[in-house]
Structures are given as C-alpha cells and as structure tokens.
Amino acid sequence: MGKTYDVIIIGLGGMGSTTAYQLAKRGKRVLGIEQFAPAHDQGSSHGGSRIYRQAYFEDPAYVPLLLRAYELWEEIKRESGRELLTVTGGLMMGPPDSQTVAGSIKSAKQWNLPYETLSAAEVHKRFPVFTPSPNQVALYEKKAGFVRPELSVYTHLVEAEKHGADLRFFEKVRSWEPHSSGEGVTVVTESGTFEAGKLVITAGAWSSQILKDIGVSLEVERQVMMFFEPIGGVEPYRVGHFPIYIWEADDYTQLYGFPSFDLRGEGAKVAFFRKGGVPCTPETIDRNVYTEEIQTLRDYLEQGLPSLSGRFLEAKTCMYANTPDQHFVICRHPDYEQVNIAAGFSGHGFKFASVIGEIMADLAIDGSTKHPIDLFRPQRFVHH
Ligand SMILES: Cc1cc2nc3c(=O)[nH]c(=O)nc-3n(C[C@H](O)[C@H](O)[C@H](O)COP(=O)(O)OP(=O)(O)OC[C@H]3O[C@@H](n4cnc5c(N)ncnc54)[C@H](O)[C@@H]3O)c2cc1C
163: CA distance to ligand 1 center in Å? Predict the structure, then answer.
C-alpha cells in the first residue's frame, strides 16, 4: 500500500487537470491518475481550440459560471505565462428565432451582458467572408474567443505538480471502493493500490458506468472537426480580423468555427455542432474521416462562408459525452459522500474547465460549493 492522499482524481483530461491544479493549490495531497499521456488526443480535449462565449443559448443558468471561468482563465494565464484563452469576439448568427440567436439574446438580456445585434448586411460589412441569407441576424459579443484545450490540460498539470500533486500517466484505474464510513476510498490501478479521503471522477467519455450507477444514461458520440485553406488566402480569417462563430443555417443546422492561428495556420477550423454524430464508445470510435462528411460540410460552407471551402487540410475525430438533456452532471455521489463526479459535458464543456476545477475542489474539500450547480444534479433524471 502506497502513501495516503487527501484526494484521488480519476482522469486528467479537461476537467481532471483543472481539479488537480485547484486542489494542489489549496495545499491538498493530490494523486491524479490518467490512462494515457498528458494532453493526449484520445478523449474529448484535443484539436487545438474550443469556443468560449458568455451569452449562452443553452441556458442562462450557465452565465455566472462563464463569468467565473473567464476570471480563472485570466488567472492561470498570469500564473503560467501561457495564453490559454484568446479573446477574438464572437458572432452568433442565424434566423431570428433560432436557438443560436434567440437563446443568446435571452441570456445576454437576463444577465445584462454587453452585445450588439447585426443584420445580415452588417455582418457581411464587418466580416466580408460571411454571406448570410438576408433573413439572418447575429448577436456579436466582444468577450467571446477560444481556449486551447491541449495547452490548458498541459498547463494545469504542470502547475498542479508545482504545487505538489503526484500525477501518474499511462496507468488505468481498474476499480475503486468507498470505505463504508463515508470517509475514505481505495483505488486499484494496473500497477498499484492507493488510498485517499476523497475521490473525484472526471473520466469523460469513459463515464458511462458511473453515470448509469447514479441514474444517468450517457451517449458517447463521434464528432469531426475539419481544417480548410480559404480560397483567396487566409488573411481575412486570422485572429484580429475574424471572430469565433456559431452559425445556424436556414434549416437550423448549427456550424461553428474559429479564426486561423498558429495551429494549421494556413487554414481555419470548422465543424458541425451535433449534426452527424455517430454513437460509439471510446473503444469503437471510427477515427477515419470520409469524403462524404467533408462534402456535407462544404455544402453548408457554400451558403454562408463560401471562401472557407478551399483545400481540405486535415480532420480530427473527438467524442461528445451526451446526457439526455445535454446539461452536465456535477455532484456528490448520492450513496457515497466521499465520491464526487463531473461528467456528461455534452459537447460544450471545455470553456468551463477552469471553473469546474474550482467546483470539484470545493465539493471534495467542503462537500458543497457556492457556485450554482443545481442544473447539473443527476436527480433531474429520476422520474417518480
Ligand atoms: C469535436 C468537439 C468539439 C468541442 N467543442 C467545444 C467548444 O467549442 N467549446 C466548449 O466549451 N466545449 C467543446 N467541446 C466539449 C469539451 O471539449 C468537452 O466537454 C471536454 O473536453 C470534456 O472534458 P472531460 O475532462 O470530461 O473529458 P476528457 O478531457 O476526455 O478527460 C477524461 C479523461 O479521463 C481519462 N480516463 C477515463 N477513464 C480512466 C481510467 N479508468 N483510468 C485512468 N484515466 C481514465 C481519459 O483518458 C481522459 O484523459 C467539444 C468537444 C468535442 C469532442
């Protein structure tokens, strides 16, 4: 039996890395266990960029968490000297009644967030590469941008180690067992047995069983991100000229994309949001990308962003871990108070990673958090 820890974390991806950092910074003895390399590309936290925005169409209840997440992205930047969040401005564009536009405006109004509304012509004037149909409108918010997922995971792990965390990689957790007392847990990996007072499970797409145990069904889904070289040159797409965007086409299909930056700098990344997801498991995901998938995305680009449909450069597959209502699951385990879970981030979690670390550290240390996480209770799926 090795050394005893205050908290063991299973999974050091987007959420586990920030949790390790927050706990270690608060002086806790932390053991983090990850089955793959630091900042690997087998889960949900790779591909270079993730959208950050505040006028949140999914639900206004996320806004306070987004505001705190922003502060923490700034804090880790100061501490590490690395720019994890790049603010570019963000365009939420679509038919006026679309979730992207109407939902974003609703959140912005409710929380008094600054924003502008733009007509299709105004969008085209400000960002000439966009050619929305005349009925479309947009919300523009200055504080949107993108987070770098691999750099975030890597940076939080490095900073966690500086604060004394023990981090183990290429080591898979086989099982864990809560001690009956309510305090204490034993974790068994491929190479050892470890004890701690508390457990945090941040296992991403590998969370199906733990969520099933607490009454939540998880659907893991293959998604693809693609890089294209713009026709006529990348200049209008570069950071400084071009925002992050979510664009809902006239048939209500959502696409999103990023400005061009150092990763595949000759191109820009674009993807469907949810459309075309193929159910899979981490073991069965098909990492090939097919010509028809590339063509389907091109067909949409022709409508609203035609110059992006140039040479195809590269694609990456990734997993969404979806709950039935696409809201997260963040909680203490209903049966074991020493066990805390953060999972089911449903394709929109990364922008929150900085604040999720703070929340999980609160839950592990105090058993509660001041952050509003009621929306994420697993009990919402229990039907009487
Ligand atoms: C294509 C795509 C685009 C996205 N775009 C956005 C976006 O623009 N904005 C946004 O906010 N969010 C976005 N998301 C969502 C966001 O990236 C995810 O919500 C987030 O990365 C989830 O982090 P996680 O920590 O839950 O999972 P992961 O980062 O995958 O971490 C889970 C970790 O647990 C480890 N693990 C699991 N089981 C074990 C075990 N038994 N033993 C040891 N280790 C284990 C895994 O190896 C993995 O490292 C996107 C997701 C995808 C796939």
Answer: 24
Closest CA to 228 of 289, 280, 142: 289
pLDDT score of 155? 98
- For ligand 1, is residue 10 a contact (CB within 6 Å)? yes
Atom of ligand 1 nearest to the CA of 189: 42
Return the sign of the alpha-carbon dihedral for residues 345, 350, 355, 359: positive
Q: What is the value of pTM for the model shown? A: 0.98
Pair of tokens at residue 263 = 């990763």
**Half-sphere exposure of residue 363: CA atoms within 13 angstroms, side-chain side:** 27
The residues of the chain scoring below 50 in pLDDT are 1
Atom of ligand 1 nearest to the CA of 343: 26
Residue-wise pLDDT for 84-100, tens only, equals 999 999 999 999 999 99
Query: 50 alpha carbon to ligand 1 midpoint, in Å?
Result: 11
CATH assignment of 4-45+150-217+325-381, given 3.40.350.10, 3.50.50.60, 3.90.1170.40, 2.60.40.740? 3.50.50.60
